[in-house]
Write a structure and sequence with these properties.
The chain has 328 residues and is an alpha/beta fold. It is 35% helix and 15% strand.
């Protein structure tokens, strides 16, 4: 069995599970920023691929791999893999569904609280020695507790559900929208289904948990943002491609929403010229940013590697792997 790992070798070695069969795997590593030509010379030998979800895998390369049986995303995302090309060849494409749900849900709560408590301004104010001035101001302006918010979740997959569980502990009024309504989960989680327009118009915080598809790409557009409450916050720990960057920039400087907490911005890597990093000075504190770290905890990598190598072992035993995303 020849395994190609597209990603950071040190990370994979650090979290690799102690399974005896791994010793019999011939493993080759390549950077996640590889070029197609870097891989074509040994592509015919590859039986399976583990891939960083931020890396691409194109039909051009897949067609050079006659032995390929499995493409396993290290995370939940798989939008940069040509899943149709794999399906046409009978190659399984799998992800690590659920492995990062608790990690990302924690990041969601962090960003929500950070927005409500205005932590960036608070930190800067303390460093400037103006603690009393800000405290006096906030006692008059008011601080909104998370438990007093109506929170809308767009997408109710594993991460959406984990987020709902944590929000429930704060006492939030939680609503959701998804492709299909799930009344069993509504009862289990104590949440309510809303049509998308009602959710957008009535929620104090909207949190994105949808995958990137043709329908969801830039779903947060000018119309979406204009329909949000002027006092609302937008949270995104899913994918930056869900948001139209220009529309969000305009919504903030036109004060159509109060702010945003973003763990993901498109395109990645996020460079200094990205429009969302260049708000006017008076609006820069309206966005809290983190570098797409919501799902990369120690426990996530341990869980994901177990899933990945378990699926690889299933392939070795001619069994069907778990968490297939390309319909095989």
């Amino acid at each position: 069995m020849n395994l190609l790992i597209i990603g950071n070798r040190n990370r994979y070695e650090k979290y690799k599970p102690n399974y005896a069969f791994i010793n019999n795997i011939n493993t080759r590593y390549i950077s996640r920023n590889y070029r197609n030509e870097d891989i074509l010379d040994f592509a015919p030998l590859i039986d399976a691929i583990f891939i960083d979800p931020m890396s691409h895998l194109d039909k051009e390369v897949i067609d050079y791999m006659p032995k390929l049986q499995l493409v396993q995303s290290e995370g939940v995302g798989y939008d940069k893999i040509d899943i149709q090309a794999c399906k046409d060849r009978g190659i399984y494409v799998c992800n690590c569904r659920g492995a990062n749900e608790s990690a990302v849900a924690e990041q969601v709560i962090l960003l929500m609280l950070g927005c409500l408590r205005n932590v960036i301004v608070a930190h800067e104010t303390m460093l400037a020695g103006k603690q009393i001035e800000m405290k006096e101001s906030l006692m008059y302006e008011g601080i909104v507790e998370l438990g007093d918010c109506k929170v809308g979740l767009i997408g109710l997959g594993a991460i959406g559900q984990a987020t709902a569980k944590r929000l429930k502990a704060f006492g939030c009024d939680i609503v959701y929208n998804d492709i299909k309504r799930n009344t069993k989960l509504e009862k289990k989680l104590g949440i309510t289904y809303n049509d998308i327009n009602t959710l957008i118009k009535t929620c104090d915080i909207i949190s994105l948990h949808a995958p990137v598809t043709d329908k969801t790409t830039r779903m947060v557009n000018e119309v979406f943002l204009k329909n949000m409450k002027k006092t609302a916050y937008l949270i995104n720990t899913a994918r930056g491609e869900l948001i139209d960057n220009q529309a969000l920039y305009d919504a903030i400087i036109n004060e159509e929403i109060l702010g945003a907490g973003l763990d993901t911005i498109s395109p990645e890597p996020v460079l200094k010229d990205n429009i969302l990093l260049n708000l006017p000075d008076e609006y820069q504190n309206r966005i809290i940013l983190s570098p797409h770290i919501g799902g990369i905890t120690n426990s996530f990598f341990k869980r994901s590697q177990i899933i990945m190598y378990t699926n690889l072992n299933k392939i070795l035993k001619n069994k069907k792997p778990e968490f297939i995303v390309n319909g095989l």
